[in-house]
């Protein structure tokens, strides 16, 4: 293994640890604070679960399917599909969150009656159920048949681009499940901010109007935080997808492997960045973080005191 491969593996390991710890903290924070009962935060938990799985499953699999091991063709294909799965779940959760914010701003009174925690749980489950067959479409025949025919004794050095055709990565993974959702979510958040800005420009009136203004300001802050999550997702994933498009549409141009690895690292790092955004931008999650941190400190002090008392009792 050369120095570049060692550095890539170490950075992937660091990103995986950050993904697991950060998103586990998000899940724990929203669960203990009962914020999970709110529709939007229920969807954020689903997104955090997908990002957590990126850290504990997708990144290790990505390292394995980078020409490190010899596997059968279908085992390599299955591992590659698993790596794709959690990315699709993330983008579908982001779409669901954007639609939820759109409904909350456009029909605020009907929203509280229409959208419940049960509905959000069903939407979150639908994101996973839709992503599973689409991410495993290569297993149904959309794979690289030439690689299968060239496999010696039905084994090969496992690499994603050898078993999954670039046509799937470009047309399905990028165009259908990245570019189109990103454009749709950009339009939704644009409408949300325009609507909130117009309503906030209204002249102040009675107490009910002031409460409405306060509600809109909170919605604007939350929408801004979630749109930042969307922007970071786009910035993290677009470079890798653009490189795939260059390789697919321009046969004479080949992206250097080092640049491709940097794009892969950026895409995986996105799952580790979201908990940081939540911590600094969303007040409810920030407060829940603080409560968990205080509990950890209190438990640590109590354990230290109990250990001190035991050592004192044992040494009269």
Apparent shape: globular
Number of strands: 2
User: Helices and strands: which structural class?
Assistant: mainly alpha
- End-to-end Cα distance: 58 Å
Strand order across the largest sheet: 1-2
Task: Kindly describe this structure.
There is one protein chain. 33% of the residues are buried. Helices cover 83% and strands 4% of the residues. It contains eleven helices and two strands, in the order ααβααααβααααα. It has helices at residues 3-32, 39-64, 73-106, 108-114, 117-135, 145-150, 160-163, 166-200, 207-249, 257-281, 283-314; strands at residues 66-72, 155-159. The protein has 316 residues and is mainly alpha-helical.
What is the strand and helix layout of this fold?
Layout: H1 3-32, H2 39-64, E1 66-72, H3 73-106, H4 108-114, H5 117-135, H6 145-150, E2 155-159, H7 160-163, H8 166-200, H9 207-249, H10 257-281, H11 283-314
Antiparallel strand pairs: 1-2
Helix pairs in contact: 1-2, 1-10, 1-11, 2-3, 2-5, 2-10, 3-4, 3-5, 3-8, 3-9, 8-9, 9-10, 10-11
Quick structural summary:
The chain is mainly α and 316 residues long. It has helices at 3-32, 39-64, 73-106, 108-114, 117-135, 145-150, 160-163, 166-200, 207-249, 257-281, 283-314, and strands spanning 66-72, 155-159.
Features:
single chain; 316 residues; mainly alpha; 11 helices; 4% strand
């Amino acid at each position: 293994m050369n120095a570049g491969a060692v550095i890539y593996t170490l950075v992937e390991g660091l990103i995986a640890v950050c993904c697991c710890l950060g998103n586990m903290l998000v899940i724990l924070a929203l669960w203990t604070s009962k914020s999970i009962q709110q529709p939007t935060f229920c969807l954020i938990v689903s997104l955090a679960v997908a990002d957590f799985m990126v850290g504990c499953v997708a990144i290790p699999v990505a390292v394995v399917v980078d020409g490190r091991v010899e596997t059968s063709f279908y085992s390599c294909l299955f591992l590659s599909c698993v790596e794709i799965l959690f990315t699709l779940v993330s983008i579908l959760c982001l779409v669901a969150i954007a639609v939820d914010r759109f409904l909350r701003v456009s029909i605020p009174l009907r929203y509280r009656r229409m959208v419940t925690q049960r509905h959000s749980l069903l939407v979150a489950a639908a994101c996973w159920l839709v992503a599973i067959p689409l991410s495993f479409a290569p297993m149904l025949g959309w794979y690289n048949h030439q690689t299968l025919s060239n496999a010696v004794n039905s084994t090969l050095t496992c690499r994603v681009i050898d078993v999954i055709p670039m046509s799937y990565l470009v047309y399905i993974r990028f165009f259908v499940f990245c570019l189109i959702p990103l454009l749709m979510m950009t339009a939704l958040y644009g409408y949300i901010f325009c609507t909130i800005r117009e309503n906030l420009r209204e002249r102040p009136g009675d107490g009910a109007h002031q409460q409405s203004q306060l509600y809109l300001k909170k919605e604007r802050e939350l929408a801004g935080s979630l749109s930042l999550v969307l922007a970071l997702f786009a910035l993290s994933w677009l470079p890798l997808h653009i490189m795939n498009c260059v390789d697919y549409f321009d046969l004479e141009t080949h992206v250097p492997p080092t640049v491709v690895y940097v794009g892969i690292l950026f895409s995986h790092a996105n799952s580790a960045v979201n908990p940081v955004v939540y911590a600094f931008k969303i007040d409810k999650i920030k407060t829940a973080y603080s409560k968990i941190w205080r509990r950890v400190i209190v438990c640590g002090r109590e354990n230290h005191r109990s250990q001190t008392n035991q050592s004192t009792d044992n040494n009269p």
